C-alpha cells in the first residue's frame, strides 16, 4: 500500500515544483525591477510552455523552466539573466537580458513577438564562435552577423525544435547570429 502512495505523491509534487521553477530562479530585486520596467508583461512560469516541452526539460535538466537562464553575459563577474517575459493579455512575448550594474538591473530588449510564447525557450550558452545557419540564405537582418565570437556566455532564444538566435554583449551592443532555423 505504501508504493502507490509514494507514486501518487511523486506525480502530484512534480507539477507543483515545476510551477515555481521559473520564479525560484529570479532574485526578488529583479522581479520588482522587471515589473516596473515592463508593466504589460509578467515573469515567466513553467506553464507558459507546452506540457510536453516542460516534461522534456525535466527529463534532460531537471528544471522545467524554459523562460529563464542565468550567466555572466557581459563578463563583469556578476550574475545576469535572460528572460522570456509573457504578455498579460494574448500570446505576445519579449526577450530581455537583465544585467546587474552597481546593484541595479539594466534591461536590454533583444526581441518582441506578437505570438508564440508557448514554444519560446531561452538559454545561456558557452563562450565561443557561432556561424549563421546554412538554412538561411537571405540577407542579414539589422544587427545580425554571419559569424559571432564571444568571450563570455551567449544569450540564446528561439522556438523549441525550430529556431535559435545567439546574442553576445559587445561594447554596449548585442550583435546576433541565427544558429538554427
Span between termini: 50 Å
Instruction: List the uncertain runs.
Output: 1-14
**Could you tell me the strand content as a percent range?**
25-35%
Global Rg = 17 Å
Helical proportion, percent range: 10-25%
Assign the structural class, choosing from mainly alpha, mainly beta, alpha/beta, alpha+beta, or little secondary structure: alpha+beta
Average pLDDT number: 88
> Sheet with the most strands?
5 strands, antiparallel
Number of domains: 1
User: What's the assembly state of these chains?
Assistant: single chain
Number of helices: 4
Q: Give the ordered list of helices and strands.
A: HHHEHEEEEEEEEEE
Secondary structure tally: strands: 11
Structural commentary:
- With 181 residues, the protein is α+β, with helices and mostly antiparallel strands.
- The chain has one domain.
- The chain has 4 helices and 11 strands.
- Strands 1, 2, 3, 4 and 5 form a 5-stranded antiparallel sheet that branches. A 4-stranded antiparallel sheet has the order 6-9-10-11, with no helix packed on it. The protein has a two-stranded antiparallel ribbon with strand order 7-8.
- A hairpin with an 8-residue loop joins strand 10 and strand 11.
- The chain is globular, with a radius of gyration of 17 Å.
Quick synopsis:
The chain has 181 residues and is an alpha+beta fold. It has four helices and eleven strands, in the order H-H-H-E-H-E-E-E-E-E-E-E-E-E-E. It has helices spanning 2-19, 21-25, 28-37, 51-60, and strands spanning 41-42, 68-71, 80-87, 93-101, 104-113, 120-125, 128-131, 147-150, 154-159, 164-167, 176-180.
